C-alpha cells in the first residue's frame, strides 16, 4: 500500500488550473523528488499533501486514508520550508517544542523527542541559542529538527537547501539522506537542483505545467544514451 497517494488531483485558483489530474503512489520509506521549472506546481502539490492547501478535485490519501478534509496537524506529515519558518526570538529548544506544546504533548515526551532530534542533527550544543544568532545551515537543521519531533510518517521538503551555499548544500544532502535511512520515513522532496535530485531520489517525478511528464529512477531519467 502506498504511504502517500494522489488520485486524480487537480487544483484551480479561480479559473486558473495549476494542477491537472495528477496521480502518483509513493511507497513507505521511499524518497521521491519532484523537479520541474518554476511555476509548474511543485509547491502546490506539496502543500495539498501537507493540508496547507485545499484540493479542488481528486483525493489525497495518506496511509491509505483519504485526508482531503483532515487538518494539517492530524495528517502525520511534517514539512520543511526553504526559508526555515523559525521563530527568531525563541530558543532552538522552544522552536522545536512549540508545535508539540500546542497539541498537548507531555513535557517529558517533548524533552526526549528534542534530545533525540538534537542528537541526530548534532544540535545538542545549540539548544539554548536563538536562530537569529545561527548560520543558515544550522537554522535549516533546526527546521528539520522541528519536523523530526513531530514524528511524522511523511516528511515534505520544499527546496530546503536553496538558501545555502554550495558546500553546505552538499553536507546537508548527506545529512538528509542519513536521516532518511535512520528514520525509515517516507520523504517527498522538491528541488530544481539536478544533482540533488540525482543523488537523493529513489524516484524522480518530472512536473511540467501542472502535469506529471515523467516518472523514473534517476538513471532512467538522466543517463540513458
Ligand atoms: P512551483 O513550486 O513549481 O514553482 P507553484 O506550485 O508555486 O509552482 O505554483 C504553480 C502555479 O500556481 C504558478 O503558476 C503560480 O503562479 C500559481 N499559484 C500558486 N499559488 C497561487 C495562489 N495562491 N493564487 C493564484 N495562483 C497561485
Ligand atoms: P498552529 O496551527 O497554531 O501553528 P500546530 O500545532 O498545527 O499549531 O503547529 C505548530 C507548529 O508546527 C507551527 O509552527 C506550524 O507552523 C507547524 N506546522 C503546522 N503544520 C505543519 C506541517 N504540516 N508541517 C510542518 N510544520 C507544521
UniProtKB/TrEMBL annotation:
Residues 4-225 form the ABC transporter domain. This is sn-glycerol-3-phosphate ABC transporter ATP-binding protein UgpC. It comes from Rubellimicrobium rubrum. Signal peptide: none annotated. GO terms for cellular component: ATP-binding cassette (ABC) transporter complex, substrate-binding subunit-containing; maltose transport complex. The chain holds residues 1 to 225 of 365 of the full protein. The keyword Phosphoprotein does not apply. GO terms for molecular function: ABC-type maltose transporter activity; ATP binding; ATP hydrolysis activity. The keyword Repeat does not apply. Belongs to the ABC transporter superfamily. Keywords: ATP-binding, Nucleotide-binding, Transport.
